[in-house]
Amino acid sequence: MAEQLRRLRVEAGAPTLRQLSKKIEENPEFPGIASPSTLSDLFSGKRLPKWPVLESVVRALDGDEREWLLTWEKLVMLREVQALTTATDPTRPWAPYPEE
Predict the structure, then answer these.
(1) Are 72 and 20 a contacting pair, CB within 8 Å?
(2) Is the pTM of this model over 0.90?
(3) Rounded to the nearest 10 degrees, how much is the dihedral formed by the CA atoms of 46, 48, 50, 56?
(4) Is the pLDDT of residue 85 over 60?
(5) What are the CA-CA distances from residue 91 to residues 78, 79, 82, 88, 100 (Å)?
(6) Most-buried pick from 4, 22, 34, 80 (CB within 10 A)?
């Protein structure tokens, strides 16, 4: 996702992180607040942001919110599946609890 987000940023004229943060903070229509450090984490792919932050960035960069929401939802579901898979016995991935 970070690579696509960086591409969107370039297509939007490559604003600096400070410029983008300021644009988000100054627009009451944007649902999230994003500091330059939060934006840095977002564009580097260090962590999956909360939807309001990503939505604000996508809006500020004139991206397709619906497309980004679908991508974000898929990543959230994948992360949840991975968490469930690692929490179970690898020999019994269908069983959420250890045998009694």
Answers:
(1) no
(2) no
(3) 70
(4) yes
(5) 20, 20, 15, 8, 15
(6) 34
